[in-house]
Amino acid sequence: QALYQIAVLLVFNFDGKRIFQLHNESREHADKIKNTFVFNAFVFCQIFNEFNARKPEEKNVFGGVTSNRLFMGIVGITTVLQILIIEFLGKFFGTVRLGWKLWLLSVAIGAVSWPLAYVGKSIPVPARPFQDYLKHCCAWRRPRRRDEEQGGKS
Q: For residue 25, what are the domain limits?
C-alpha cells in the first residue's frame, strides 16, 4: 500500500501539471490544482485503506462492515469533511475546487488499494520470520576484548 501510494502521488506531484495539461493555467493556479488533487487522492487512499486495515488477515474486508456503526460513521464523516474542504473551504485550507474528472480519478486511485490488498493477502507468509534468515548470514561479530580472551583475568 505504501509503495503504491508513494509512487502514484509522487508522479502526480512532480508531473501533474503536464499530466493534467495545465499549461494554459497560470503557474500559481496550476500548482493549486495539482496540490489539491494530490491531497484529495491521498485522503481517498487513506479512506479506502481503512477497509483493508479493518481486517488485515482476511481477504473479504467487507464482511460485517455495515453493522459496525462507528467505522461507517468515521468513513462517512471523513468523506463529507473532505468534500467540504475541497469544494467550500478552499480559502482556509489553500485548496481549489476540482472538476468531476479529477474527483473521479482521486476516488479511483484510492479504490485501487482494495485489489492491491487482496493480492497482497494472497502472498504466503513463511512461518519463520525473515530476520531469522539474516541472523545466520549477516551477523556481525563484535570484537572480543582482551580480558575476555584471558578468561576474565587482567
A: 1-139
SS3 of 61, please?
Answer: coil
Residue 84 in any domain: the answer is yes
Nearest to 113 by CA among 35, 53, 37, 38: 53
> In the predicted model, what is the mean pLDDT of residues 30-46?
96
pTM: 0.79
The reported pLDDT for the residue numbered 143 is 55
Closest CA to 53 of 130, 103, 120: 120
Section 82-97 average pLDDT: 95
Instruction: Tell me whether residue 152 is in a domain.
Output: no
Is residue 150 in some structural domain?
no
- Helix then strand then coil, % of the chain, to nearest 5: 70, 0, 30
**90 in a domain, yes or no?**
yes
What is the tally of structural domains in the chain? 1
**Average per-residue pLDDT for the chain:** 88
Q: In sequence order, which residues have a C-beta less than 8 Å from that of residue 31 and are 6 or more positions away?
A: 17
